[in-house]
Structures are given as C-alpha cells and as structure tokens.
Amino acid sequence: MRESGKKFGATNSPCAACKLLRRKCAESCVFAPYFPADEPHKFANVHKVFGASNVNKMLQDLPVHQRGDAVSSIVYEANARIRDPVYGCVGAISTLQQQIDALQAQLALAQAEVVHHKMSQAASIILLPHAKPT
Amino acid sequence: MRESGKKFGATNSPCAACKLLRRKCAESCVFAPYFPADEPHKFANVHKVFGASNVNKMLQDLPVHQRGDAVSSIVYEANARIRDPVYGCVGAISTLQQQIDALQAQLALAQAEVVHHKMSQAASIILLPHAKPT
C-alpha cells in the first residue's frame, strides 16, 4: 500500500481497519472508504474471519465500482460466521432452501385445488345444462 | 500445532493443507481429517479466501464432532467466493430470497383463486337451490 503521508477523510482519523491493524491510514487505503472509524466492529469481524490481507487482496483484485458490494457481502459472511461458527451463512442458505421446498409443496397443493375446482365447475355445467340463475 | 513426529494416515503423505503450506503434517494436524492429500483444490480455495491460520483457529474453537460440518460450510463459502468474487455465497442467498418472493406471490394468487372458486360454488348453490343433477 502506498503511503502518501496524507490521511484519508477530513478528520485525520485512521479508518477502522488501520486502527485495528495499528498502522498509518494512507489516502490510498483500500479499506478506508468502506470501514469508517466509527464502525470498529464491522472490520473486527471481517479481520477475524477472513484476515485483513486476504480482504485487501480480494478488494484490490476488483474494479473500484464493485468493491462496495464486495465489502457488504464480506461483512455479511463474517457476521454470519461469528454468529454461527459451524454453518456461517451456509446455514441461511439451508434455511432458505427449506422454505422454498415448503412453499413449492404448498403451491402444488393450492394449484391442485384450483384444478379440482375448475373440473368440478366444468362437470356441474355438463350435468346441469338447463340450470339458470334464478 | 504439536509435532509428534508421526505422520497422519497410513500413507505417510502430508494432508493437502500441510502440503500447500510446506510443513510437516503431525498426527494431531487439525486439517488432516478434512483435507486429504488427493483433494488439493479443496484446501487451496479455503486458504485463498479465509487463510490457513484463521481456519485453524475456527476449527480449534469447535468441538471435534462439529468440525466436519464447519469444514463443509467453509469449503462451500470459499468456492462461492472464488466463483463470484463480488457476492460470494451471499449471491446465492439473494437468489434464493428472490425465489421465495416469487413463490409467495404465486402461492397468494393460487390461494386467492381457490377462495374465488369456493365463493362461486357457494353462490351457485344459493342461486340454484332446486337444481339437481340430470
């Protein structure tokens, strides 16, 4: 990381990442736009799960316009792993998959009921050809 | 990690993790049961995304009977991040959430249709009290 001697932002505070890593926060710091000093836990979990150098590399490998989304997903994954050290956000995937299975079963039942009603209606029209509303 | 001098497994081969990290694979190696030598890519992606020392710590912090599930979810997350460096497995969560929204909308429609048919049926019984099948 290039050290320009000029701190990021107007406050001269190092970003949450550089503060945790106890290093100078250069103007070119890859973390500074996404890990402000007033959100220290946001970076702490990311560092604990992925490691600062891995995240630095992941962000450097992406164009700037995609880094915000990448940080959001990395923070989400890190928080999920801290909450659930065994399954992390794969636990959420599993829960959502179960919800999909349940909804698909409910939908199949409801659609079968619609078909049943339509067939009953069609049958009643055939069986009562002269019936008219009173 | 304690080095016992005795290699893990019958083949004396280091596990995929120790091979990649170019270190001796002790009998007590925390990676060896989950990263066999014949699956080198499984650990390579995990190391690239999470870092070996973070994963080592995550596994050490878990009881042995939960480590297999933790490794599966970590491998899943790492592979997802390699495939999609911006969204990782959060992309899958987003896709599943959209599927759930679509299924809930379809289910609401089907259930409304069922209610509509039931009401029509009830109305026809009231309107045609003397109608009998021919």
From TrEMBL, chains A, B:
Pfam families in UniProt: LOB
Residues covered by the LOB domain: 13-114
Family: Belongs to the LOB domain-containing protein family.
The name this protein goes by in its record: LOB domain protein
Organism for this UniProt entry: Quillaja saponaria
